[in-house]
Amino acid sequence: MIKVWALLLAVLPVHVLAIIIKIAENGTDSSDCYNGKGIVSCGTLKYAFEHGVDNETIFEIGPGVFTLEVSPLFNNMNKISLIGSGQYTSNHLSTRGTQIYCPPGKGLAFENSTSITLSSLTIHNCGAMRPSTSILHEGDKKPTALPTAIYFYQCINVILSNITIQYSNGSGCTMFDVTGDILIEQSLFYSNHNYSSSSFNGGGGLVIEFTYCPPGYSHLNECGKNEIKNVNLMITRSQFNENTATLAQKTNISVFALPHHERHVAIARGGGVSIFFKGKAHNNTITIDGSNLGYLKGIFANQAIWGAGIFVEFQDSSANNIVNIKNCQFVNNHVVGIASNGTGGAGIRVGYLTYTATEPTNNIVLVSGDGLGDTTASCHFLGNNVEGKYGGGISVFSVGSEYNGDTGDRFEVDGCEFGNQVAQYGYAISIVSLPRKNTFKGAMFRNLRSVYECHKYSYLYYTRSTIYLQSVDVEFKENVDLLNNCNFIPKNLILPGLYAVNSGVHFMQNSRTTFSGYLAIQGGAIALYGNSYIELWPNTSIVFENNTALQQGGAVYAKFAPGPAPYSKLCFIRYCDLTKPPNLWENVNITFKHNKAQNGTAIYATNFDNCYWGKAYGMPITSETRKGVFQASPWDAVLHYPTCQNSTSHESCSNEVVSGPSFIQTRTNVNIPNPVQLIPGRRKLLPYYNVTNDKGYSVEAVFSIAVEYSCNISTICNQEIFAVSQSNLYTSQFAVTIRGDPEIFLDENVKRNLKPKIVFQSINNPYLIVYINFTLLCCLPGFVLHPSDSRLKECKCIGNSTSSSLSSKIQCNIDNDNDADTMTATLSEGLYLKYFEEFTSCKHRNFYLGQCPDGFCVNKPINLPTTYNQTELDALICDNNRAGILCGKCKDGYSVAINLVSGVPQCVDCKNSQISHLGWLVWIVSEWIPLAVILLIILAFDIDLVGGHLNAFLVFAQIYSFSVVNSSSNNTLMDFNRAFKVFYGFWNLEFIGSVLPSYCLVGSSNLQTMDTILLQYCVGVIPVLVVLMVIGVSKCNQRVCLCSCYRRLLLRIHYYITCRNKFRIFKEYTHALASFLILAFARLFTYATYSLRKERLTGYDSSGHILKYVDVVYYQGDLEYGHGRHIWYLLLSILVLILFVVIPTILLLCYPLMANIEGCLRKVPINLVRRFSDSCFLQRLQPFWLTYYGDLFQSCYKPKLIYRMFAAFLLFFRMALLIAYVVAENRIQANFIQGIMCLVFVFIFVLVQPYNKHYGWLNRTDPAIYASLAGALFFATYGEQFQQSQYMLILPFLFAVIPIIFFVGILAWKMINLSRNGNEQRQTCLLRCLSKIKRLKSVGTKRDVELETSSESDLVLSRNITSYQAVSKNSKIMT
Hints:
alpha/beta, 25 helices
């Protein structure tokens, strides 16, 4: 209060007494409170401001909280003071003794007034709409009103002391054209922004503007008349925290590309402080001293789109103005926005904007501190963040002069320190100038230090550089340290040092500069682009230490602008006296230590053309001169490489200084094709050239790729014909990917006129150009031209087409990232592909696709050949000497073997197979003779294989011989394999031939799969026919059918029957018929299914769309299903299935039903139905042979219907297992499905227990055999996948031993029982059976009743009655 009164006494005349009006919380609103004596206090601000406003008035307010119910406007007033009461105890908000609270839309305003003082007040929640100078939309005629808490316009001598302006709904304080002496001290601007809605603009802490047009102007003739000069504005020891200069969502982020005059917008600029110099603002000084903008609270302090901390901009004709920002702290300020808008300056944003004839001149912004201490500098930038592009700490933007030379505008940084910031361009400082005729020449850094610390801030992932310069001349004076103290490289951290574009970097006299620890892709410490250069002055020292470039230029990288030489025609490292060579530069030292890069650990430049000092003196440039640039004399007096020169590891110095590509030549012994053949979309390496640099060393160069062609044919020139793939616009290996339509090249006239060329042009040296002629070929197999509606096509994988169903069938391998240029299509395992016979164009490469039988095609995915040659493709797909559709036939000169090896029809070279020359003989000896022996044995002894004991064993043997034995191909187990093949193959009527090598019937045989199947039918069908013939002859003998043709045959049968009687064999031949039906069942069913199975070939066009379907025979694909020769194969297979599979199965299924039907009819109490049941019709429906045939299979089961049908279920079970074997895509899948079926059947069997009491022990043994089959199938499925373990391979054979043990046991048991049976027992049993049969015939019951009342031995003996009667009749006939 003492200081405030002192200020008041200084501005008030001595002879005038000020009017004092007091406002207190307990005051009374009456005339006594505004009489000027200050004895009685008013109770409200509204009453005091409405009645007591006059010149030279002091309002003493508080202490307490007061509501500003009105928005008073102090206009044309003199010496107005608002003084609060109470102590200021903290620098934070809401702690002053007097608080003025505003309802929405209220605030203070001062216009055209002099000597205004506000002191010791807290202004809370104010914000009244006031006139502004901002045009928010292009075409608006008037500026938009904006909210602010305290508003000043054209006031003189303003003091804000110990003021807190907080939570304003808009900006905290706005000053338009305020002149004289302005003081803002020890004040706090906190959280001032627009709280109303995101659709409103405004906000910020303090807005200062020297205007071109008056606020709220109506006509342009009001603009440009006001000249503001000699203003002295001081902001000291104040704080600006959490203020936000907002921008409405619907407002264009950059209304005017180049603001000037009335085209002005001030919103979203300056979150803490916003300063505009417009119009005729001359010789004004603004000082911001010892203030804090932001703080370390883990949140963003001040926010704006431009200049979150402080925003300064010079426009129009403003001149000779100074903004001095010293000893200020900028912490955690945040620039919001998007990168494409060029926003920036989280700490400070400075702009120099020139427009046409008006331009700001000689305006200076000085950012300074009292010095760089050992810990924290008085001028400090830390944690400021830019979401846009430029300047995490400071962003300077300039539009250069169009008419004059140097405008005299300057920007200087002196004695400041920069910690971690975030920005894309210049995380510490960014200076960008948009030059017209001249660059911005007024930038200077003195005693600057930038230090990045890893452990403090981890959100910096990528920045273009610490300092970013564009079209600027910058001077480095005294001591400048640019350091990266991070001792490790965080993930994705790219932190270069200085990045200069068309800029001059001047290291002034007596300067000492250090670049240390930086990392960049190119140019770790300094990257020079365009016409940028480094200029050195006497007594200059630069140290580059521990900098890293991932590619080129560990310390310095220079890439020049296109042209025959750098624009300046001078070396990019030069001296202030351009006439002196490096050895005469005065005390200049540049040291490179421990820098790293792939090329040029110290220096990398696109070329050294102007750095050969011999050339400058007219001396010839030799290879030694080139190799010695920047390293040998005269450069060795200036540039030093102690790391390389003092290395004890004999490290070579050749990589310290490297240039880009300078020369290109054809490799020796290389013939360049003319034209080069390319496939659209496929990367092609063209390794025909070698690139060298200025030092004569081979270098890797990056080339841009383009396509040139001449087009004078109107039908094809209406759109782009060729283009370089977007993913291959640049290359360092002369690799190219072209998009286009190869159909164009089918027309020779078009091909001659186009003359397409590939153009390789070095991006580092535009004069390195290579032209290569090219032509386009059709896509490789498995690829399709895409998109179909464009000329710019490329070959895409047909399996990846969105309209294709081939994704799981054809996969592609496209690897354009290495030298292999891989572009292949892979056909999935087990598939067959056939091309259509005619290809009319690149767009009609159609093909068929189908599934190969197991063993016909190679057991792995194949890469499709690069040509559309079916023979070449078949050679890759087909296995085992096969060819044709689905690899279903043998190659020329080969024939399908008569014997099956590994369950697959094998193709044999008959002429070169020794065994094939005796094929017929081998077949008879190995197959037919064993078959005849077995036939005679079964007929002679009438062996019963279907009575129950061998049911499970036969299922195991027949399935195992097809599925399991054929799955093992390991050589170490071949002996096991052969033994089990012979033993288990016997029960499928496969004998020694299964273990012989594959052979042909004759040496010149040309059999195919269907032909071999016909021969295999004979082995299964002929034994059954022979048995049927014997049975037929026997029946004719019993019925005295003495035809003359049978006499001789019956005479021989007499001796056969006598032999059977001698051995007490009284059985019928039906056992033989049933046995051979079962032995041939699996064989005939499997081969018939081979003939019946079809495969649908799907025809696709070149785009992967389905065109049509073609059905072929699965195991002989060259036969169209149901057409031609296949009709006869089909009919024969159907006939075999009906006679030998379907009819026996149906009879077994229906036989138990007959007794149930007859029994049900007999129980019906209707005479007609009962007579029908006793009629001969039912007897014919169930003849004696059916009863006998059914009992052969079903007598071992329980008498109920469901159990008696189990014999048919066993046949169905066989069929299901064999169907899985034939239909599955491969053996592994077949074995797995069969194993699951076996486990399900075991579960059903154990649950049902179908055998009767006499065979009850089979209810326990048969499930074990079926489970053994499941185990053998499962381990055969996965055994070959674990061939390193012999145990896995031998397990299927171990499971096969269990049924053999069972079979040996049954055989031994049968032999023992046979030896015990004598004649007495047989006669006794015979008499019992005769009496029982007579009784049954008198009653008329059926076989099922007999089974319920008799033992198994009685049933067997009853069967033999018929045999005994037949023997007696035969004896009489022969007599």
